Amino acid sequence: MATVEGVLKVFSGAAPPGRCHETSHSSMTSSLSVNPFISRKKRTASRKIITPYHSKLPLGGLSNVSLEEASSALCANRRFNRLELFSCKCQQAENDGETSTRDGNGSWFMDSKNELNPLDTMINGPNLLDFSETPLVKDDKEGTQKNCIPLYPANVDSVEDEAWDLLRDSVVYYCGTPVGTIAATDPTSSNVLNYDQVFIRDFVPSGIAFLLKGEYEIVRNFILHTLQLQSWEKTMDCHSPGQGLMPASFKVRTLPLEGDDSAMEEVLDPDFGEAAIGRVAPVDSGLWWIILLRAYGKISGDRSVQERIDVQTGIKMILKLCLADGFDMFPTLLVTDGSCMIDRRMGIHGHPLEIQSLFYSALLCAREMLAPEDGSADLIRALNNRLVALSFHIREYYWIDLRKLNEIYRYNTEEYSYDAVNKFNIYPDQIPPWLVEWIPNEGGYLIGNLQPAHMDFRFFSLGNFWAIVSGLTTSEQSHAILDLVEAKWADLVADMPLKISYPALEGEEWKIITGSDPKNTPWSYHNAGSWPTLLWQFTVACIKMNRPEIAARAVEIAERRISRDRWPEYYDTKKARFIGKQARLFQTWSIAGYLVAKLLLADPSLAKILVTDEDSELVNAFSCMISSNPRRKRGRKSSPQSYII
Ligand code: GLC
Predict the structure, then answer these.
(1) Which of 260, 447, 284, 265 is nearest to 361 (CA)?
(2) Closest approach atom of ligand 1 to CA 525
(3) Nearest CA to ligand 1 atom 6
(4) Which residue's CA is minimally distant from atom 3 of ligand 1?
(5) Residue 453: exposure state from Cβ atoms within 10 A (0-12, 13-18, ≥19)
């Protein structure tokens, strides 16, 4: 099936642009492949854009495909050198070695030897800052930084204007077209790691910001280019993960063209986790891709992208991967540690909430977009069954509030029966002492993970917020989560929104669960650090529940210092007082997250492009399940085994 789909995908327009297309040599330079902010090369004003796609084929399928197209599809399906595919040929860059500084609007300081030519700026867009030659020098007396490192935006109208400038500067181009945004452009960090790549999850707030601004092209390109990468051959030590996997990130590389020294080609080089620290699988990438695809269609009105046969195939491949039968007893997705935003060992292996919320959301979005056709009936049936089972499971078993906690506190254990109350054999002693104090009288939340004899009681922001956005929680539960955020404002928002998780793993627990990870020390990074990017998901959740004022308060707190702090990736300490120990500065999703929050608060109606509501059929199915819940009635025979909508 996968092979047929792979071929279909190529037929329908997802063929590698440089491989199966007539490519034209353009006059753009190799600097197009990277953020101009960090490149030393200048983009030339005139460039010929290479059309990266075949035009869409009729939905009818293969019958209209010529022999020539068929053979090129098959050739593209062969195993090529990884850099050979997904490349476009660009003319050799004329590397004039010129170093220039960024921005004609006075945002950045300039090195006197690199006086800026305003005309140049107009033609070439933002100029470049050579940070390698301008080390950060701290002036103790004034507590300010000298030289070319931007400290305060000198001449921008507002934090928002500065954020837009930075976001635009983070755009990555492939063959002259914008395809994503770089994860971070930190002039103070010498170790780039993979922060110079376009991360799928990081691009989502950038993409949404552009969509909300009416700039659709970059999102469309991102969707279609990452789709090409989906079917890429990926292996780790001879093992291949499932076909529908989307990469965690990709990089645009500029390489000499094979057999032609005078020409360069740009290539898209994906990382599916095979190079990532810890070799983590990006389970969330495909889910975010589906969510972004729907948002694109909703706001632009351009449904032609989601209707393309290759895009439909891409959606189905992700769904098949997620809905495949395994050994699981639970409807939740079983994943390894580090398979989402928290991409390091943090004790979230199993059924982490973030993945479940994204999974639920992606299922709903996909259902909306899948073209009805005979071949998909089984898939849609499986999808619907999973939606019902998943929402039941999460609402029932992940939910915690004072009442439920008290119930767990009094649990009987070792219940061998079909109608056990304590189904997962949770020992009441697992209730952590912090939670007994922390749980408010009003409010509640979804716990981080549930496994046999194990509840991870930590509060994870993204999973909770996206459960609200997607309607995975009931309306009552959604309000209760926001009540909890308000009640625990000093812990979850404090000096910078928002804690990625709460509380931190400390002492022995930190040693055992993180493997003594020095990056994830208590109250830092993934271990209860504070991440400004989470503002956008929080804002969507607040708007959905008609409580935008809560998000506005959080945005206001961020606004006080985020620009002055140079847009860090994350903050440390219990109250988020410090910029994170190893946090990147000018982290794009911190910038984009802030912008999305601002744009949505300015026009809350736009949040509908991200929100999904329960439909009445799902509600019916859900109540059906509740009434047959073995907690109330033994359900082995009577519980509905499948639900067909
Ligand atoms: C870190 C984060 C991850 C993010 C990446 C790029 O690895 O944990 O969520 O995608 O940085 O910003």
Answers:
(1) 284
(2) 8
(3) 183
(4) 341
(5) exposed
Mutate to test the pocket of ligand 1, among 202, 249, 514, 590 (most ligand atoms within 8 A of CB): 202
In this structure, what are the phi and psi dihedrals at residue 76, rounded to the nearest 5 degrees?
-70, -20
Alpha-carbon torsion (510, 513, 518, 524), positive or negative: negative
Nearest in space to 448 (alpha carbons), one of 405, 491, 503, 525: 503
Q: How far is CA 594 from CA 400, 554, 567, 634, in A?
A: 30, 10, 10, 49
Judge whether 350 and 334 are in contact, CB under 8 Å: yes
Query: With left for phi above 0 and alpha for psi between -120 and 50, is residue 277 left, alpha or beta?
Result: beta
Q: Ligand 1 pocket: which of 200, 341, 533 to mutate (most atoms <8 Å of CB)?
A: 341
Select from 170, 189, 195, 199 the residue to mutate for testing ligand 1; criterion: most ligand atoms less than 8 Å from CB: 199
Residue 383 alpha carbon to ligand 1 centre in Å: 29
- Give 201 Cα–ligand 1 centroid separation in angstroms: 8
Measuring from atom 11 of ligand 1, which residue has the nearest CA? 195
User: CB-hemisphere CA count at 13 Å for 626?
Assistant: 11
* Index of the ligand 1 atom closest to the CA of residue 342: 8
CA of 528 to the centre of ligand 1 (A): 15
Whether the CB-CB separation of 588 and 183 falls below 8 Å is answered with: yes
**Closest atom of ligand 1 to CA, residue 183:** 12
Please name every residue paired with 254 in a beta bridge, in sequence order, or none if there are none. 266
Judged against a pLDDT cut of 80, whether residue 371 lies above it is answered with yes
Which residues have any ligand 1 atom within 6 Å of their CB?
183, 199, 201-202, 341, 343
> What is the per-residue pLDDT across 374-420, written as a single tens digit (0 to 9) for each?
788 999 999 999 999 999 999 999 999 999 999 999 999 999 888 89
The alpha carbon of 530 and the centre of ligand 1 are apart by a number of angstroms equal to 13
Please state the φ and ψ torsions of residue 457, each to the nearest 5 degrees: -80, 0
- Which candidate, 621, 632, 631, 551, places its Cα nearest to that of 593? 551
Residues 6+ apart with CB under 8 A from 154: 106, 107, 108, 109
pTM for the structure as a whole: 0.78
Q: Report how far ligand 1's centroid is from the alpha carbon of 503 (Å).
A: 20
Q: At what angle do helices 2-9 and 309-323 cross, to 10 degrees?
A: 150
Asked if pLDDT for residue 1 goes beyond 60, the answer is: no
Q: Are 289 and 200 in contact (CB under 8 A)?
A: yes
Kindly state the percentage of the chain with pLDDT values over 70. 71
CA angle 73, 74, 76 (to 5 degrees): 65
> Residue 248 CA: which ligand 1 atom is closest?
10
Q: Output phi, psi for 344, to 5 deg.
A: -140, 170
Q: What is the 3-state secondary structure (H, E, C) of 120-140?
A: HHHHHCCCCCCHHHCCCCEEC
